[in-house]
Amino acid sequence: MHDSSAAAGSTPSHAVVIAGAGPTGLMLAAELALAHVDVALVERRTSQALAGSRAGGLHARTLEVLDQRGVADRFLAEGKRAQVAAFAMVTLDLGDFPTRHTHGLALWQERIEHILAAWVDELGVPIYRGREVTGVAQDDAGVDVALADGGALRAAYLVGCDGGRSVVRKAAGIEFAGWEPSVSYLIAEASTTTTPTPGIRRGPRGVQAIGPLDGGPRIRAVISEPEVRHGDEPTVDELRAALDAVYGTDFGVHDVTWLSRFTDMTRQATSYRAARVLVAGDAAHVHSPAGGQGLNLGVQDAVNLGWKLAQVVHGTSPATLLDSYQAERHPVGARVLATTLAQTAINRGDPRTDALRDVIGDLLSMDEPRRRYAGLMSGLDIHYDLGAGHPLLGRRMPDLDLDTADGPGRVYPLLHRARPVLLDLGAPGVLDLGPWAARVAHVRARHAGAWDLPVLGAVAAPAAVLIRPDGHVAWVGDGTDHGLREALTTWFGPAAP
Ligand SMILES: Cc1cc2nc3c(=O)[nH]c(=O)nc-3n(C[C@H](O)[C@H](O)[C@H](O)COP(=O)(O)OP(=O)(O)OC[C@H]3O[C@@H](n4cnc5c(N)ncnc54)[C@H](O)[C@@H]3O)c2cc1C
Predict the structure, then answer these.
(1) 295 in contact with ligand 1, CB cutoff 6 A
(2) Are residues 277 and 341 in the same domain?
(3) Cβ of 333 below 6 Å from ligand 1
(4) What total of structural domains would you count in the chain?
(5) CATH of the domain at 43
(6) Nearest Cα to Cα of residue 159 among 42, 300, 66, 269
(7) Which residues does 310 contact at the CB level (< 8 Å), separation at least 6?
(8) For ligand 1, is residue 161 a contact (CB within 6 Å)?
(9) Res 230: pLDDT
(10) Ligand 1 atom 39: residue of nearest CA
């Protein structure tokens, strides 16, 4: 770890500097370190400690992504497996989904960040802690990053993972388009003199929830305010008034260890890249926490961007590869924004919305809608548009059981090193990686079972698949090598970079 008091005289330089060591920045740092990129994090906080609980868990696709890197067990060991995917407060069971993670994980954000930070530390990524990015200036060759203490950093690329108020996004002139909030909430962790009855109530603007924090006796409360208020430093008097307005008592609330305000402001960066500056996570999109998507979306942005940025930094791929980050992740973010807008509307407590919620609940109790929305909310249905072809193209590779020359195995451990894999299940001698052999692992294997995709169901077994480091399928073989060379060039750079 780099000492926060490091002399600000010389200008340290790195291939990539990441502003912000929240979940997105940490995941991106790990991805780049696995790809042997000289990367450093700059973080305003002096430690990973986080005020308040914030995000409450991971969805199934995030668990898969962590499994692809061999670290999912670290999270599973600390959290509680649970059906966390929900829409309009209807829980969507993943029990019959074709994944090894037929559930999400209940785990507070601070623990998620600690586990990620420990991994990043193992990977040897320097973190400039207690340093705040205040300015960004880029030229043709790189980016100068100004810090609040007068210091500076230089990088070939800068990624803003610095949250919803991203200084990096603003300095790069990236527009943050969307909607002003329709509701503000107070969120608190506190003690009370009388014990509230745990549960959820609906108000005209949204839900109120109160319950024991980590089993009690302290409480966690989320209270929608009667009108939209701004500023994330509300007072305890405002909390008392909000509790009183909803419950007719403030429960003698005291010893408030966390009190914050959040809204359903919904905005998305119109561009995820401005030349050598990129944005990811909350820096690229903010929305209501309904559905528990934000952290998951950020981690998956990082996994989409990391290997691409690594290849550009190493010179194996042209910088245009980075355009696919925007092309793939912006629509995924827009879809999450849309579901949170819908959920904000449907969580209101007037009789008409109550009736609408009953209709939605009825629909989601049917198998096909349940599967469709479970795929959406868990992230297991994500499909990047890589053109027409086999249904696997652009979708996540399932973690199939394999028979290989080294014995039985499964797909995801093949991705632990964040390198691409040509999984060759057809006749020997048909596929040859040629000049890409140093960049792409060629694994010959057999899979005896079915090929099942979430929501879609069974698909035809392919003769081979080219799997990107993020676990998405870049090419599907039909028993010939038709199109393989083009796919290798598109995704992993020209034969002679
Ligand atoms: C009440 C609440 C509940 C939520 N529940 C869920 C949930 O259940 N599931 C879910 O997926 N998401 C949830 N979220 C959203 C989730 O917390 C965020 O989406 C997530 O933290 C985004 O991660 P990030 O790394 O992109 O940004 P952040 O977590 O905001 O991290 C940004 C980092 O950058 C640092 N930073 C900021 N500016 C600078 C600067 N200028 N220089 C240096 N460092 C800087 C910050 O200190 C921070 O460490 C919830 C949010 C709230 C408020």
Answers:
(1) yes
(2) yes
(3) no
(4) 3
(5) 3.50.50.60
(6) 42
(7) 31, 32, 35, 36, 37
(8) yes
(9) 86
(10) 162
Does ligand 1 have an atom closer than 6 angstroms to the CB of 291?
no
CB of 43 shorter than 6 A to ligand 1? yes
Mark whether 170 and 200 lie in a shared domain. no
74-130 tens-digit pLDDT:
999 999 999 999 999 999 999 999 999 999 999 999 999 999 999 999 999 999 999
Amino acid present at 81: R
* Domain boundary residue, one of 214, 235, 263: 263
Q: Do 410 and 293 sit in the same domain of this protein? A: no
- Among the candidates 263, 291, 313, a domain finishes at 263
Inter-residue contact 136 to 144 (CB < 8 Å): yes
Residue owning the nearest CA to atom 15 of ligand 1: 294
Query: From ligand 1's centre to the CA of 296, what distance in Å?
Result: 11
* Three-state secondary-structure class, residue 352: helix
- Is the C-beta atom of 282 inside 6 A of ligand 1? yes
pTM of this structure: 0.96
Contact 153, 230 (CB under 8 A): no
Cα(22) to centroid(ligand 1), Å: 6
Is the CB–ligand 1 distance for residue 262 below 6 Å? yes
Please tell me whether residue 152 adopts helix, strand or coil conformation. Answer: strand
Q: How far is the CA of 151 from the centre of ligand 1 (A)?
A: 25
Rounded to 10°, the helix 323-346/294-314 angle is 180
pLDDT of 242-258, one tens digit each? 999 889 999 999 999 99
User: Does any domain span residue 34?
Assistant: yes
202 alpha carbon to ligand 1 midpoint, in Å?
Answer: 26
Ligand 1 center–CA 47 separation, angstroms:
15
Find the CATH number of the domain harbouring 204.
3.30.70.2450
Q: Is 293 in the pocket of ligand 1 (CB under 6 A)?
A: yes
Based on the fold, state whether residues 454 and 307 are members of the same structural domain. no
Which structure tokens are listed for 270? Answer: 């119109």
Beta-carbon neighbour count of residue 410 at 10 Å? 16
Spell out, as residue ranges, where the chain has pLDDT lower than 50: 1-8
Structure confidence at residue 494 (pLDDT): 97
Mean pLDDT, all residues of the chain:
95
List the domain range (segments joined by +) for residue 36.
13-56+108-178+267-347
The pLDDT, as a whole number, for residue 9 is 54
* Span from the CA of 284 to the centroid of ligand 1 (angstroms): 11
